Amino acid sequence: xxxxxxxxxxxxxxxxxxxxxxxxxxxxxxxxxxxxxxxxxxxxxxxxx
Length: 49
Description:
Helices cover 96% and strands 0% of the residues. The chain has 49 residues and is an all-alpha fold.
């Protein structure tokens, strides 16, 4: 029974780890995408002027 609890705890910890990592990477990529979009918009505005 102890081995089952240990295995279950390991699976839960791995799921929590990947969930947290996924949330952090999603936030980082969203931020970088917004920054790149803003820079492209600035370059286009300067080219039009």
